[in-house]
Write a structure and sequence with these properties.
Structural class: alpha/beta
Strand order of the largest sheet: 3-4-2-5-6-7-8-10
Number of domains: 1
Distance between the termini: 95 Å
CATH class: Alpha Beta
Number of strands: 10
Low-confidence stretches: 5-32
Number of helices: 5
Order of helices and strands: HEEEEEHEHEEHEHE
Radius of gyration: 23 Å
Shape: globular
Largest sheet: 8 strands, mixed
Oligomer: single chain
Strand content: 15-25%
CATH architecture: 3-Layer(aba) Sandwich
CATH topology: Rossmann fold
Length: 187
């Protein structure tokens, strides 16, 4: 009785190659996921610093509300801001806040994945002392206060001084020096 081992070897090689491709795909997905999470943490850190370097009119609450409109919460990175202090006030992160309750927030984040909500949030908050931050690249042009922009392997931000002024918000000069671009305020 003679056995032909060639088909079995070919099958093993194919399965080995298939397993190698699957492992490589999993590693690539994990690396992309880790990269996305690192980017999300940096964006959350920016939002924390905006809470420290933007002046709001007098607020009665002891808490500082950072809210998301929609479902994009930077991969959960915003929750790391919970209970941290910004100018002596404890930050509370609220997710999926209804549009009619956004005026209670000091910062609203509208993520790229929820960019369809951006114009609605901007209209709803028009003139209110609520900082609107987004990672939608057209956000500042659309009327948001700050756009978080990913450039190569870093995160930068753009500021719309005109909308800050209309909302009675003032960004510190230290913060504005770090901005990639600033859209001027209206005289």
């Amino acid at each position: 009785m003679k056995f032909n081992l060639l088909p079995s070897v070919v099958c093993l090689v194919r399965h080995g190659a298939c397993l190698a491709v699957m492992a490589l795909s999993a590693l690539t997905a994990h690396a992309q996921n880790a990269s996305s999470m690192a980017e999300y943490r940096v964006k959350a850190a920016y939002i924390f610093n905006f809470a420290k370097y933007v002046d709001w009119p007098v607020v009665d609450s002891k808490n500082f509300l950072v809210c998301t409109s929609g479902h994009d919460d930077l991969g959960g990175a915003l929750s790391a801001l919970d209970n941290r202090l910004a100018n002596g006030r404890a930050i509370q992160v609220r997710q999926h806040v209804a549009t009619d309750q956004l005026k209670d927030c000091q910062i609203i984040f509208v993520g790229e994945r929820d960019s369809k909500l951006l114009n609605s949030v901007i209209r709803q908050m028009l003139g209110a002392p609520v900082l609107i931050v987004s990672d939608n690249q057209q956000a500042v042009e659309a009327g948001a206060h700050i756009t978080l922009a990913s450039a190569e392997d870093r995160v930068e931000f753009d500021v719309n001084l005109a909308t800050l002024q209309r909302s009675n918000l003032k960004a510190s000069s230290q913060m504005l020096k770090l901005a990639r671009t600033t859209k001027p305020a209206k005289p």
